[in-house]
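Morning!

This is the sequence you dropped in the shared folder:
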Amino acid sequence: MPEEFHYGGQAVIEGVMIRGRDGVAIATRQPDGRISTERQAVPEIYRGRLRQTPLVRGVIVLIETLVLGTRALLRSAEAASGQEEEDTVPKGLLWGTVAGSLAFGVALFFVAPLFITRYAIDPYVGSAFLSNLFEGLIRISIFLAYLKLIGLMPDIKRVFAYHGAEHKAVNAYEAGVPLRVELVKDYATAHPRCGTNFGFIVLVLAIFVFALLGRPTLWIAIVSRVVLIPLIAAIAYEFVKFSATRTNKPLVRILLAPGLLLQSMTTREPDDSQLEAAISALNEAIDIDSGTESTPLPAEGPASPPHGIIGTDQQSKEVLMFSLTSSEIIEQGVIPAKYSMDNPNQIGVSPPLNWSGAPEGTRSFALAMVDPDVPLEEEWFPYPIKVGDLPGDLFIHWMLYNIPASAEGLPEAASPGGTLPEGAKELKNNMASPGYLGMGPPPGHKAHKYIFTLYALNTDSLELSPDAGYVEFTDAMKGKVLASASLTGYFGH
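The structure's back. Tokens below.
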């Protein structure tokens, strides 16, 4: 009887990669709003007998992660930019990137801590064990600092959100829940088989493995830090594999707790469009393993797979066209200044928006405009609220709900103080004023991304207090979202 297969993957540029038993699926959000899916074969070396051999399989998985993961990242970067002409990544680029990434990781996390310890710690420490312990603590500190620093980058924030979406989709699938956004979004962004957890275990195990060598000469120590990585990775993989199926055991939960906690640095709460990409990738991987042919996504315009329809049966997928556009904002383009705080009114006016393709059963719409690139450093944060008050590291510019199903758009300057569809209501933005708030990134900061998301709801109205925030706004929509569509633009000074 074949061993049960566990799906897993990683976040890529504007999407998610899922590794199945027989293939790899990559789902990427394209500039026009569509989700493109791509299938890649898994080479036999990653599926054969060696892949099932204890200890050896850990080394195979390490190589697989580097090669397949890097290839998925490069392909997703092309797809996210709309460049899909090439079906394969050039081998030179692939292996060059793998080699460069591996060399960087070894130098930063293994060789650098060794040099720091030898020249800054060892002159004051006589014990070889304490020397290795300090080296390990420095290694872990560098790892944590690295995660913290890259997590400040806006593009990496989005990758981390896709990472959270991947975990939510896999958690929901393993719980036997249908892969629909409104169900998947309630699951955790942490997972015991996560690569972050694996990396942390490698760093901890390295302390004990290197301690067995004592304190050899510097060059022997450098060589050991390189050649023993596969062995340490193999042991770490066996621990992750063993513990992932025993998370109900108290001791296992204690051992996994640090790695799960660390995932708070490498995952973020995803939005619905990111969950859609993760679900599309997982569905595609499942289809590969079941022998089901992929159904191409429509090519004639932007599409966003709807909530409640992303989950597939065994033979087909249904993709519903639901799009959000503006005559003044090109997808991924620059937003005109009149819609920003640079407007003479110092608030801005809302842009014209139009939508089409709402799913059957839509009874109302809700709309949100957020800035996911808001700087979290206090010195960049001139607004009259605390950074910690921001929901999910988002700055909320506009929340509008109870838009009637008959509406097909909003005119320019509908808010603040303009004409909204009958019955529509607005909530307060993060400047504590009701209605639309224009873009206002700090001077000298890079251009920010602004995302308009329209939700098609199966209810006539949402019951919300005038003082409700973004969390209450999204909570009120749980279980009511039929589909969502988004429009993204950029603005900076």
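Headline: Residues 8-262 form one domain.

More detail when I'm at my desk.
O.
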